Fold these 3 entries.
Entry 1:
Amino acid sequence: MKKRIALLGVTGSIGDSALSVVAHFPERFEIVSMSAGSNLEKLLPAVAAHRPKVVSVKTREDAARLRQEFPGLSVGFGPQGLVDVATIPEADVVLGGIVGSIGLAPAYEAVKLGKTLALANKETLVVAGEPLMAAAHASGAAVLPVDSEHCALHQALRAGTPQEVKRLVLTASGGPFRTRDFGTFPAITVDDALQHPTWRMGPKITIDSATMMNKGLEIIEARWLFDVPGAKIDVVLHPQSIVHSMVEYVDGSVLAQMSPNDMRFPILYALTYPDRVPTPLPGLDLTALGKLEFFPLDETRYPAVPLAYAALETAGSAPAVLNAANEVAVEAFLDRRIPYPAIVELVARVLGRHSVVRVVSVADALEADAWARREAAALVPLLETSPRAATARALPA
């Protein structure tokens, strides 16, 4: 029997990879619903090819156009449209490929119904890890990681019991600035930051990889996915991005998962779990690797990582605030409003202003998220690159 998939984010990089996997295994998978943002030109051929029952887009106007193109198709829009895509009764698996906290509500509603959640959207667990995992446990829903690092950990953890785990080790490429002169960081441009050395991703994720905020978010995600405290989650730099992550066991054994830099592999793993299936995708040529390197994390170069550890230790609403402020900061950088070092500076300032509360519901998480966005937006003008760069020195504490 085919697995029926609700695909959140069909026009993004995860969506591209998911469509490729489905195309390789038409006998195994069927897409029954999908969502997109504003890229209708990319969405239309996907709808024509897969004929989903439900589709959601960003705006009412785009929804009207889609209904004209496909009479009889159920089309929604906005946040409720995403929930409709994720909760369609026919779906067995919800593949969450939307970037940002907007993916939280559809993921939460899906797990409440007991649907398997294949999660590429790390922000969902960062913002509301406690209520989402509680809902999954209550309904019996499986939450499977699609991030390559967490997929690697999930596979390596199958070798032992939770009591036998000493630590989880997340690997990170180090992004495009691993060896760049630290003194030149204020001169980093948007184009510089978008040149990731090993992965091809959307702009927001690529900037997060440059600052290593993505790794900070992954630390928090790993805490909830695997019920492991932050003190047992480490990060090492691995420029080749071939070892996707590792698990060290109490007996000294270290299990590493390796595969090509291709998101189709973790997507296939999540969609077929607990089985493994033969794949036509090109495998890893071990003899061509040459060498695998590992380096310690430089917290001065990547201050986002210790900031994320601190937010995780603080717990409650702090991770949600960290994520929301970062989204605003990255957008401001991509808009060329603030300099590169101001991304993490802005997040730190917002966290410093926040009074932490416990997050026991999605509403709690979204309230903290909204507060952080307002605070971050208010601080952006004080860090603008030009003509008021000097005001960054006068940023209020």
Note: The mean pLDDT is 93.
Entry 2:
Amino acid sequence: MGRNAIILTVIGALVVTTALSSVYIVDEREKALVLQFGQIVSVKEEPGIGFKLPFLQNVVKYDDRILSRDIQPFEVTPLDDRRLIIDAFARYRISDVVRFRQATGAGGVAFAESRIDTILSAQMREVLGSVTSADILSANRAVLTDRIRERARAEANALGVEIVDVRIKRSDLPEQNLDATFARMRAEREREAADEIARGNEAAQRVRAQADRTVVEIVSDARRQAEITRGEADAERNRIFAEAFGKDPEFFEFYRSLAAYRAALLAGNSTMVMAPDSEFFNYLRSAEPSGRATTASPPPPPPAAPAPEGGAPASE
């Protein structure tokens, strides 16, 4: 009785094991191949439960999502011989699992990624080597990566792989070229700075010359106006003097004499050499009943100065 129970238990375990080994599950992120002695028997691309022969067949699953692959940095030489270190990455997916299995065998994804690296490196060297470094470093880089992707996609199809995208992460100069490049960039910036300084100095000279010209014009006009005003004032003064002289010649002579005394008899200037009977002393002598010793003819009115520019006469 006990022996039969053990046999039944073993048989039941074998049945369960056989049943479980004949069932496999594929989720929505995967594709599966059923292999028998290394040969492809069936393909399971839809998610769900699949069946296979236990112990004779096995299932190989591949990721159906878009995968990312970082490419090892490598050196390219553009048309202008400025070597660049390119660091790029690619995104790909397994589009045909049957062809992928036939191309990669047991190597699987590791072998496929190695082949993808080789394909992309070759295409990048060819495309980037046909343009200048300025094109690689500019916004045109997106056009170049699209060209690389299209050319690499044709080769990757043989692996059952679709290249979805290719992008360049960095493009740097080799270490040995950095110093020379920085020196050239510094010299170029210094030259541009010198040009800007020269243009600024030229503009400053123009502004300064215009300002100096404006100053001269303003000062000249102000002097002209001042001379006109001074000439008009001198003319008015001469008119007043002439009018006063005409009204009372004797008082005018007396006033002029006092002004001459005030100007001549200053401190430190009290020594004069002249004849005692000079008319200069008429108002300093002893007064006669008429108030003076002799009568001198009245001096003429001051001559009018020549008229300055502006038309008004000027005084002496």
Note: Residues 67-178 form a domain with the Tetrahydropterin Synthase; Chain A fold (CATH 3.30.479.30).
Entry 3:
Amino acid sequence: MSAARITAPRGTHDVLPDEQDHRRRIEDVARRVLEGAGYRRIETPTFEDTDLFARGVGGSTDVVQKEMYTFTDRGDRSLTLRPEGTAGVVRAYLEHGMHKLPQPVKLWYWGPFFRYERAQKGRQRQFWQLGIESLGSDDPSVDAEGIVLLHRILDALGVPGLRLRLGSLGTPAGREGYREALVAHLRAHEDRLSDEVRGRIDLNPLRAFDSDHPGTREVMETAPLLLDHLPAEDVEHFAEVRALLDAADVPYEVDPTLVRGLDYYSRTLFEFTSDALGAQSGVGGGGRYDGLAELVGGAATPGFGWGAGIERILLAQAGGAGDVVAPVTDLYVAWTDGHRRAAFALADAAAREGLTARLDQAPGRGLKGQMRRADRAGARIVAVVDDEGLRIDRGPGGRVDGLSVADVVAAARG
């Protein structure tokens, strides 16, 4: 009796070779746009001290309470697979003394993240994310630039039906009076709220705006709005962000009910959605988080960042449709029985000269079959090694017989 077949864990998926070109295009576009704006690549560990997320992301969030993959290692340390990127980047900024560098320090990243949530199309338990963090400046231009960069990336990738929702949370001190008004409103209608919202009225009342519970949604229709209660400094900051977006011709709609699932946000908040995604329409978003560094043990450091889901982008592109450029093979080497070693040496010589070279490696495949494989590989030149010697069978100059290895390599170099 054979053993039971093992499959990928629920909420994860294999990224197969046919999908790589689409993902590589997203990364290439992001690198060009972000590094052109002065952002530099950073990679942080896939797992971190659990306390980094408990303190940084917020103990009242669903991420910390329900969704983190946490384990105890052999040294009896509590570690967590990273559920988001910002806290780890801020930790690295503080740990490596990046505050001594010219500010703001602009960083971008690309990698896998992990959350235990209901697996569905475009929303997995292991998911890939592109993100940026800009640390060390509270200037409104940092916020506007970050939003413009994500808009530029999504637009270059052809994500259809893009919409930008924009809001402001103000500073924690500035929204304290509003918080009291909102808590009073929720307490007055407590019997109509969901158990979840009722349980965190004091911890995070703003998250009530994000509830899909019918009774809660009805209560929130008459709730006071934060944008009506912001102090002058926060109003001015938000107005300048909007003016800069207007100057960059990036359309947006102000959403006074916009909230995010993480506690560290302050002031500017935004989300890009795509009409192509239906109810789960979010593609990417983020905002300002000026108090996060202090929460994880550092000095006060203003910051702004965002994350965009790679699977969400691909899904919005209708399964990866888009202008993906197929890889080009400079030289494809076909061969007949008895000439494997000569064909191998030719492909190796071309590769050592910096060319992309492929050798047919299916024993017994005829020359016709090898030519079809060369077509699929996008080969510019096809060389054949057989009893007649070495020749170029297909290339810009047509068939050329009686060639040396150096002749073929030179022709492939173009």
Note: The longest strand covers residues 105-114.
